[in-house]
Fold these 2 entries.
Entry 1:
Amino acid sequence: MPSAHGDAPGRKPEAGGAQVKSAVRTVELLEFFAGKPGMHTLAAVQEAVGYPKSSLYMLLRTLVELGWIETDATGTRYGIGVRALLVGTSYIDGDEVVAAARPTLDRLSDDTTETIHLARLDGTNVVYLATRQSQHYLRPFTRVGRRLPAHSTSLGKALLATYGDDQVRAMLPESLAPLTEHTITDREKLIAELHQIREQGYAVDREENTLGLSCFGVAIPYRTPARDAISCSVPVARLTPAHEQTIKDALFDARDRLALATRHL
């Protein structure tokens, strides 16, 4: 399940005490496994989180018994457990914005015939909360629960544009990690693009997150700075000027509908 802080594992508790320390370590372990799908050896987990081997082993065994962590047939490799999925699902099922957005996401999918996403800003990342698959023949995939860097996505850039320049500088490092050869990696260049996004009302990711894919995003203005955004992804091979305009018009209409649907949240 995504972290509520957007930080990497390794945060230190602000207060002393064995109970607080254990709670922090438990959360950090779950965040590690959520961010690193698959099975991992005890040595690999220890290298990532830096806990003493004996206490790490005992914590892992406890989480296995409770269902939060699973092991393979040998009992020597560990991965995220089913209880984490149940908690993540309950977060989405109980979220008022996700519930309010469902009819609008369905209509946006029909209007564009492309893949639609609803995501939330989480620190310097965006977490995907809902998806509508493309109506064209594509390999099925879903991003619900996934976390991606805000600076490389139209969703994230639309949300960052609702913050002031100094706030963005405080949030992001000067050098940004590239996901493709097209990703903006200079913070000041990104800030310059955020100025343009504020003027035009939408953000664009042109193969900055995934090669061969462009994405258009708008923030939902039910709070300031914005917390959530919607986007439409389309393969560049199918992105004609007319189709791009259709997508933009549909996104603006969806934004206005969502602003009305979420005005009391």
Entry 2:
Amino acid sequence: MPSPSWLPSLVWTDYRLAILFTVLIPLGLLLWAFIAKAEAIQSLLMIYWRVSSLLAITVYLLIGALPVGFLSGWLARILIPVALWFWADLNEEISEQPSSRLKWGFVSWRWAVSLYCGLGAIAQLPVLRCALVGTDALVKEPFCRIWLDPPWAFRELIHPTTRPFFLGFLALVGLAIYVLYLGYFVVVRLGRQGRSATGQ
């Protein structure tokens, strides 16, 4: 199926926005929160980084041209807003903090990244069909192939001498660990702690 001429630029724009909203801004906010000793914001951002590691796993799955990367990327866009808004105790602590530039910056980013992930999850619904094809078909299918270009460019920049297959294998191991940890959280920790991040 031929792809629209505007799709490649849209895909690259999405990756650039992802770097901004899911890497650079939260990293800056985390450093700021540590300096300001804002423990509730620190805690929520640490939870965010654990959950959003699925995005990094997704990049490496797509470097290996593994179709499951399309599914993991879509799930990451759902899990990130859930992780940022789920914890009742942290939400209450943050809302009760006095106004500050850090609080304003964090709340603004939380709304922005939630909107970005939500719209992205909806927009990527048609792309999920790429998760159902084989690796060879994934590379040859023009519509799906476009989504591999940014991860492959990343590999050329960061891992130019490493085989894509090996990076994809490492991503599969990372995905298995992520799924096991998520399963443990849902089955065991969620029942004990409920919506309390501290368990109190």
